Amino acid sequence: MFVDIHSHALPGVDDGSKQWKMTLEMFKQAVEQDITHMVLTPHYIEGDRDYCLDTVMSAYERSKQLIQEQGLDLNVSLGNEVFIDEKNVTRLKNKECMTLNGTSYVLLELPAHISTSALEGLIYDLQLEGYQPVFAHVERYDWLYRRPILFKELLNHGVLMQINATSVLSSDWRMRRRVKHLIQEGMVHIVASDAHDDVKRRFRLKEAYEKVGRKYGWKLANCLFIENPLRVIRDKYVGVPEKAQEGIWWRR
Question: What is the model's pLDDT at position 130?
Fold first, then answer.
């Protein structure tokens, strides 16, 4: 049912899963959450000595074997969550880091601060090379949220915006208000898990889907959790986000 384009279930390659026991539990939880396809997206940060492509590929092959051995109804593919800077844009061009499922879509993590001109330049360079940027957990970037003109310019230039399921379900009223605004205004394309473990940062897609469906309408929920993520891994065009249905968003 669900396609999760952002997860950290490969063990020992970033700040996600620490061991194979945890990875297996995460895969089982993904199945329980009705996730049928998961993109494994370890962090790619220039200068990170812990990142090794050979290690990632080996862990990926072992993951597929583990899923088959356990008889889990789950497909996995590879990508990276790429920290956006000039060096990593070059590495993307050189195929040193990975897009989502080998498509033109690339999951990007933004810095804590960056100038408008610098960000626009990096996005322009990526799109010129045929890449489709997807901003990871966009609700976390205070500086971007406070620059609505830039945010909308990025949307208008085809940048996809992903938010985390845990943010949809957050107990922090400030985060709930921000997520509500982003969804209401049609500023979100995809909801993903960004799962890092099997306890504190686990998969919560099913709960988030139910909440979005009840509050904003099932058509929009299907778009954010199923249709758009599926289009990404199939390298299909993802259109402008829909706004939440009037008269639904306020329901508790």
Answer: 96
Alpha carbons 53 and 68: distance in angstroms, whole number:
23
**The pLDDT value given to residue 246:** 46
Instruction: Read off the pLDDT of residues 111-128 as tens digits, 9 standing for 90 and up.
Output: 998 999 999 999 999 999
Q: What is the token pair recorded at 171?
A: 């107990």
54 within a domain of the structure (yes/no) = yes
Alpha-carbon span 122 to 120, nearest angstrom: 6
The CA–CA distances, whole Å, from 121 to 108, 154, 203, 207 equal 14, 11, 34, 37
Q: Which residues fall within 8 angstroms of residue 211, CB to CB, at 6 or more apart? A: 168, 169
**Separation of alpha carbons 123 and 204, rounded Å:** 30
Q: What is the pTM of this model?
A: 0.93
* Residue 143, domain CATH: 3.20.20.140
- Is 246 part of any domain? no
Is 45 domain-assigned?
Answer: yes
